[in-house]
Amino acid sequence: MSLFYELMQGKRLITVEIIYHLPDFPELLQSFIWQDYDLPPEFPKLQDFLHFWSLSIDGRLHSVNVAYAEPLKLPFVRVADFAASIH
Question: pTM for this structure?
């Protein structure tokens, strides 16, 4: 599926900061940045990724911060009221 088609379906670029506890030193926190195109507000890809994280990665999640771009908008076109030529 093309990126343009996904954007037209309402998907947006999301940036996720995952803060997790280091497995060997649980009192220390580490940051991980993840980006993908997903569908807000449910974020199914992010939910799948966090589920994978909890099952497959030793670092226990501390917090998850999500930011996403505005939806794709068509360009604004304004019609001129006046046209002139300068010679």
Answer: 0.74
